[in-house]
Amino acid sequence: MPYYIYWCTYLIIINFIAVIVTIIDKQNAKKQRWRVPEDALLFLSVIGGSVGMLLTMYAIHHKTHHKKFMYGIPVIITLQLVVAMYLLIR
């Protein structure tokens, strides 16, 4: 089986996890409960959940006033695309 099938499966799973964690954090914020640490959200983005997290942030209006997220996650996506392109043309 080609290696890219594994990467695609991984990205689907990690993005699904990022979406769920972002939604849970939003719900907990509304109810003033325990929150997911910002570093954990950014870590999920770095390890591949950046697209799912960014789309979810816009969809549910979560963390959209935090510069760390509104600039950081697009930068993470850009870096991930650069690394992916480098690996593909290598």
Automatic annotation (TrEMBL):
<dbReference type="InterPro" id="IPR010718">
    <property type="entry name" value="DUF1294"/>
</dbReference>
<keyword id="KW-0472">Membrane</keyword>
<feature type="transmembrane region" description="Helical">
    <location>
        <begin position="7"/>
        <end position="24"/>
    </location>
</feature>
<feature type="transmembrane region" description="Helical">
    <location>
        <begin position="40"/>
        <end position="60"/>
    </location>
</feature>
<protein>
    <submittedName>
        <fullName>DUF1294 domain-containing protein</fullName>
    </submittedName>
</protein>
<keyword id="KW-0812">Transmembrane</keyword>
<feature type="transmembrane region" description="Helical">
    <location>
        <begin position="69"/>
        <end position="89"/>
    </location>
</feature>
<dbReference type="Pfam" id="PF06961">
    <property type="entry name" value="DUF1294"/>
</dbReference>
<dbReference type="InterPro" id="IPR012156">
    <property type="entry name" value="Cold_shock_CspA"/>
</dbReference>
<keyword id="KW-1133">Transmembrane helix</keyword>
